[in-house]
Amino acid sequence: MNESKDGRKTNRFSKPASKSVSTDSYPLVLDIEDFKGNFSFDALFGNLVNELLPSHLEEETDALEGHGGNDVMPNGHLRTPSDTGKSALELSSPLFPEVDALLLLFKNSCTQLIDLRKEVDGKLSNLKKEVAAQDSRHRKTLTELEKGVDGLFTSFARLDSRISSVGQTAAKIGDHLQSADAQRQTASQTIDLIKYLMEFNSSPGDLMELSPLFSDDSRVAEAASIAQKLRSFAEEDIGRQSMAVSSVVGNATASRGLEVAVANLQEYCNELENRLLARFDAASQRRELSTMAECAKILSQFNRGTSAMQHYVGLRPMFDLEVMNADTRLVLGDPGSQPSPSNVASGLSSLYKEIIETVRKEAATIMAVFPSPDDVMSILVQRVLEDRVPKLLDKLLMKPSLVNPPHMEEGGLILYLRMLAVAYEKTQELAKELRGVGCGDLDVEGLTESLFHAHKDIYIEYEQASLRQLYKSKMEELRAETQQSNESTGTIGRSKGASIASSHQQISVTVVTEFVRWNEEAISRCNLFSSQPATLAANVRAVFTCLLDQVSLYITEGLERARDSLTEAAALRERFVLGTSMSRRVAAAAASAAEAAAAAGESSFRSFMVAVQRCGSSVAIVQQYFANSISRLLLPLDGSHAAACEEMASAMSSAEGVAYKGLQQCIETVMAEVERLLSAEQKATDYRSPDDGIAPDHRPTNACTRVVAYLSRVLEAAFTALEGLNKQAFLTELGNRLHKGLLNHWQKFTFNPSGGLRLKRDITEYGEFVRSFNAPSVDEKFELLGIMANVFIVAPESLSTLFEGTPSIRKDAQTFIQLREDYKSAKLAARLSSLWASSS
């Protein structure tokens, strides 16, 4: 069905011309063309039936429009007002009147389709026959073409083979021609060389009859090349002749002739080289880089250009004497002034920066001029490190004598070491910068190290000597300060109780910290100068041993000085021991002097405790320094770490021995004062008060109060200074000595029951004080003393019951019982003898 211009669809199938109302009058004519293109069965079927079906559809539409008020039923039929009328209408007309026409149309169409199929089948059969015939002809043609192509390929192969053969022949001819031309050129050059060689072989020293080539400035490069070839040939020939065994006269004559040529060629080459160097210098002054490059290229034929390179480097202004003198003034300052490491470091940084900039500028020129710039840069950098830098270092690092070292006022050995470290570090930085700028194959690092070999070989000896010098200087300084302090304060006319120890130098943790700071600085130099781990470990151990020796000697001498104070105080005590018979005035003076001696002893005790405390702090500083800084630098495998630990323990053992002796002296000092106080303050009536009916005094005796007050005051320094096992051992020993001293003291008195109560009160006071020692054995002894004091309180008949639970005090109890006031009157000796016998 096609679409007309007015938009209506038209039938693409042809129809007869007449328009009969009958269905037979609508035959449909089918054409093969209708099935070509975009054929659609739906379109074909629609074209068959659309001529018949639309009339019926229009009739139904008109019927529906005539009954507009009727309802439409859900099945698609119209609901009329009267069902009777509807039934009559259905009976009067057929339901589908076009069916006959459609059947006829379909039959006609089937007939036409069968005819069309036969027609198409016939055409297809004809086409197959035509295609088979065409295919046969095509195959025949292809076969003929293949035969022709094979023939062409064979012809081309023969042609290619011929061409290849001709090409090979031409190549051989070309090679022969090229070889012949090369031989011709070689022969020509040889002829020229022989001619030039004969010119040089004419007479010794005669260069006037040479070819114009050798005097033409525009052909200098060619002349230099030829001269070098002639010289090489002549020298090789002379070498062969000298090694030959034959003594033919002709050979000898030839050798003598070539020797003349060699001498003349050498003279000419020297003259030509000097002429080129002069031209190179002139161009260098004018900064004509192209001329310089041309001369350098020609000079490279003479000894590989070494003379030109060295000549160029040697004329650089950076190696002038005035420049090197300016280097010295920049780094060392004015003559006669004392340079400091900081100023030297600043001066070296400025100088080396200037050298780097100069070398960098020269590198740009060298790259533009010389055909082998790396070789020239190697010579330039080598000249810097072998000429300019060493001349400065020789003036800067003047190695001092270890036998007569410079005084500390002049800087001492430490100044040399600091200068060495600064120079080494800055020169290493210079080497790295030069390596970055470029120096060819030159071993810059090795060359830099060689500058300091003389210093590094015995460096550790200077380091140890410097540490000893620093220690000696510091000790002299401290002694001078102590002497000046003593002179300003005076040692005569001190007030009562003034400390003898004030005239002695005390240990200072600040000084030990300064020792460690020296050692840290020395260790940093060990790190700088020691490249191998084994060397570093050995140097570190040597330097750390110096610190151990310094700290050990310093604290040992400090403890010895503190011990000397204790000894002086003890001697002063012995001078003022009260005698038994003396006048009251003399006794008063002696008592006053004894008080002063006691004050001196107490001051010396405190001074020694301070020394012990500072000694412990100093040892802790050294141990922490070893753990944080030294141990990681020592090698555990070679035993250096373990050896250092043993050396540290050995160095501190001497100080420990002195400290132990001093602590023993401290105990002696304390006990001497305790005995003095007991002797001076304890009265016979304290433990034998008269039975006058007055209530007994339950307070501690005055002697006990004084002793406890003294111990509390003096031992405060011990509690602060001592720690750990040292503190426990000291207090335990002191507690035992106090226990023994009190026992000996009380054996001088006689006790009645009220005095026994007073004694028990004193023992309680002493026991409460020694409980602060945290010494269980001492606490137990004073508890037993409290029990033993009961022998003065109980009645004689109750004495046997006191020792039932504590048999260990029976021996001391026997002595104490003899001190009872009623010992003889109550006949306790006889009464208790049976008791001791039965218990034993």
Structure explained in plain terms:
The protein has helices at 41-49, 53-66, 83-92, 99-200, 220-243, 249-286, 289-299, 306-314, 321-332, 341-369, 373-396, 412-437, 444-450, 453-456, 459-489, 509-529, 533-575, 584-630, 640-681, 702-721, 724-746, 753-770, 776-788, 810-817, 828-839; strands at residues 2-3, 9-10, 71-72, 78-79. With 840 residues, it is mainly α. The N and C termini lie far apart (153 Å). Residues 1-26, 67-91, 245-255 and 491-499 have low confidence and may be disordered. A two-stranded antiparallel sheet has the order 1-2. Strands 3-4 form a two-stranded antiparallel sheet. It is built from 25 helices and 4 strands. A hairpin with a 5-residue loop joins strand 3 (71-72) and strand 4 (78-79).
